[in-house]
Amino acid sequence: MTILETATETLRFDRDTGRLLSFRLRAAPARELLASAPDHPVFALQHLDARGEYRRLTSFEAHRRRVRLSAAPQGGQILTLQFDGLGGLPLAVTITVRASRREPGTRWNLTVNNGAGLKIVDVQFPFVVVRPDPDSALLTPFYAGKLLKNPQPETLGPDAPPVWRMGIDNGTSGHYPGGNSAQFMAYGIGRTGLYLACEDPQANIKLIRATHRPPGIRLGLAHVGDWPRRGVRTLEYDVVLRGFTGDWYDAADLYRAWSLRQAWATPLHRRTDIPPW
């Protein structure tokens, strides 16, 4: 088992597969927020075949996996998860998770090296499945925001590949930017919670959905579009996974604090990137 520690959380990963096993706040170490299972991958990658049909590859289909933990400046840690030869193809995915004992939260990023000429539609990561509980609440960014108290996993719909496809079968606005008004989700049990957000000021297209993934609820992110047919792309933004104490207001305040630091939150009369008129 590989352990990452921040100022506020402890995360545990499978040393062989890189799978996220555990997420606990240091303020409530006895409360596990995740519902990890052996069939949960580290990531999923969807692409189109020669006939335009969706196909799916996951971390389990890598020819070679490597999990490496290294030290970073000022007491930090960097976990590198490397997956080569996906599906027997010249296709590699590398995930980095950065943590610091001086700061809350972990920062995740991903690089795809596509030497196979695949038409990649999306990459889904991190793979986070939370534990159901009668004292739970789920916050999603559906339109103006939706709060579900004691959400029943079965009512959220199955975590099946078709759910993560861009097409009219899934509606024409169920993405961010679009029908989703923000790019974060939060889940809490009592006053202990988990916050998952994309800190992307450029508003790249994403699917942000909660689905039923046994034995719990998956907080899913699909990073869509602009994956090179051949070449390398590193996500232009980080995904933040961190804990919070309180209720959904406290989780929303984390996203609000980040949003107010972005250029698009600055009043027009104070912006320098537009003409004075």
Describe the structure.
It contains 1 helix and 19 strands. It is mainly β and 277 residues long. The strands form 3 sheets. Strands 6, 7, 8, 9, 12, 13, 14, 15, 18 and 19 form a 10-stranded antiparallel β-sheet that branches. Strand 7 and strand 8 (91-100) form a beta hairpin. The radius of gyration is 19 Å and the shape is globular. It starts with a strand and ends in an 18-residue tail after the last helix.
Count of helical stretches: 1
Instruction: Indicate the overall shape.
Output: globular
> What is the straight-line distance between the termini?
58 Å
Q: State the secondary-structure class.
A: mainly beta
Radius of gyration: 19 Å
β-sheet strand percentage: 35-45%
- Tally of strands: 19
Oligomer: single chain
Give the rounded overall mean pLDDT.
93
**Uncertain ranges:** none
- Helical amount among residues, as a percent range? under 10%
In N-to-C order, the SSE pattern is EEEEEEEEEEEEEEEEEEEH
Biggest sheet details: 10 strands, antiparallel
